[in-house]
Amino acid sequence: MQDGSARHGSAPRAHPLAPSWLTARRDTDDLEAALLPADAHRDAEGRLVIGGVDVETLAAQHGTPLYVLSEADFRARARSFREAFSAAFAPEAEVDVFYAGKAFLSTHVAGWAVQEGLCVDTASGGELALALAGGVPPEKIGLHGNNKSDAEIQRALDAGIGRIIADSLDELERISRLAVAAGTRAPVMLRLTPGVHASTHEYIATAHEDQKFGLSLTPSAGAPSTDADGTPSTPANPYLGSPAWTAASRALQLPGVELRGLHAHIGSQIFEPAGFELAAQKLITFLASLHSAYGVELPELDLGGGHGIAYTEADTPRHPESIAAALAATVKQACAQHALRVPRISIEPGRAIVGPAGVTLYRVGVQKDVQVDAPDGSTTSRRYVAVDGGMSDNARGVLYDADYSAVLASRRVTGDHALSRIVGKHCESGDIVVRNVYLPTATARDDLLAVPATGAYCHSLSSNYNYLTRPAVVAVADGASQVLIRRETEQEMLGRDTGFAAG
Which are the contacts of 394, defined by CB distance < 8 A and separation ≥ 6? Predict the structure, then answer.
């Protein structure tokens, strides 16, 4: 069978175009158990149910495409990170978990995070405004950004947020100037680039040298042999003359700046623990060098986020307990080696909390089978299944070649499955939602498809490409749905066009 589907009673056969990790299948039970929110199941009619609400009801009430977010799953994952890290670092240090709002942020979600004992990390003035509007206490907010404007820094100072993560020496100087003018002291963390190359896509690896974020630990060519205050170089300080050391030395002297600690983020969607542990070791060595040179022990250390989640059956994410235990062991050992107290620790999971809690519902439209040359020289077919959304509601495929999975959600079908490619309705050949998935051959127009693990970065990166309106985001819990973000209307979308508005 060229399409790779299976006859009733026979074992499913892999399609010649399928990647090696993709399992040929007759049903999606294992896939759903691994990838969907914890409160998802099938009802007696075979419809997918999330948070007690079936997908047909959700589509009828809110339309498609539709982002669906399980409130219970989000809260459980938030608690899991807080409890795991607090236990792993006790009794030596307390831990703050900052929910990375860039993954997905709304006033409701900000409230959930705070109710579960988390802080909220923002990456722009707009995200900061939303967190404040969501009732997040200012002292529980952090502000990131590699190119913060003076207005964004001023808003952070006026609000009295808990930390500003400085990304450059230029920014550090501007924070000082604005804080002095406001008659306050700015709580500052320095974002350092530890030179760790994370095993992830190039565009989401953020701790190697050749990228825009942070202050490098590598000394510049021709760097001076003494600090700004004349402290001589010693073999024990490998960072003297680096942008990171220059910034830290300056931050300890600048008026209006309270240097709270160091921060590093090595990338996103990372499964291997080694990169996180190496970054932690380097930052603690840097803390030890600062203590040796200036006699100060900075009180905080932020180890960032970027922990991977399961988008497909090939992904094997680590549990928060495993992540926390490994990092705590590394930090405690490194601090003991350098005779330092373990600082207050913070982490910044975003995707790992909201990603698996989210599902996107699409309605099936056109289907077609296309003949393709197989690796063995034969000709085979690939099924294209078009849906009513695409790259405007999930840009990760065109940005990172991201892989996803999908299941037929409006009914349960077992038996023959065909290797399929789920594509959007945009005028781009790269408009691919799911590159490779086995869907039932019985999939038909108006069926609902569910794409799991879309809670992170899908709404955040959404656009109006081809003038499609952006989908609604609804939360489901206890058998009811609640609109978190309304579906955009054409009137709202076109209202920014001055000719349309004038008409």
Answer: 360, 404, 433, 451, 454, 458, 461, 462
